[in-house]
Design a protein that fits this description.
Layout (H helix, E strand, L loop, with lengths): L19 H16 L3 H11 L5 E4 L2 E4 L7 H17 L12
Antiparallel strand pairs: 1-2
The structure holds zinc ion (ZN).
Length: 100
């Protein structure tokens, strides 16, 4: 996708049902609700704890990159992070193949 105003070219993203992004967000929402946290808090915790999530230096501070720049490989690692955390806390995650 190329922005018609500024010319910035972003990577094509897969979203919607059955995408990695949908998979990740569904699991983060389930874990957050199960543990009593907000989705934004759970997502921040995942980004801090998932070793594969890249970081960028902003104003001298290392912060996790935006999901907009996360590759499918990074998202796959984040999804696995969710699977492991859910198992540790005995949280039942709903997989897309469960609802087909
Ligand atoms: Zn899953």
């Amino acid at each position: 996708m190329i922005c018609p105003k500024c010319g910035y070219q972003s990577k094509p993203r897969s979203t919607g049902p059955f995408s990695a992004s949908h998979h990740l967000h569904g699991h983060l929402a389930t874990i957050a609700a199960s543990l009593g946290y907000h989705m934004s808090e759970m997502k921040a915790a995942m980004k801090e704890d998932c070793p594969e999530w890249p970081r960028v230096m902003i104003l001298g501070k290392s912060v996790p990159i935006s999901e907009a720049d996360a590759t499918s490989v990074v998202e796959a690692a984040a999804i696995e992070w969710c699977h492991v955390r859910a198992a540790e806390y005995n949280i039942k995650l709903v997989e897309s193949y469960d609802i087909l």
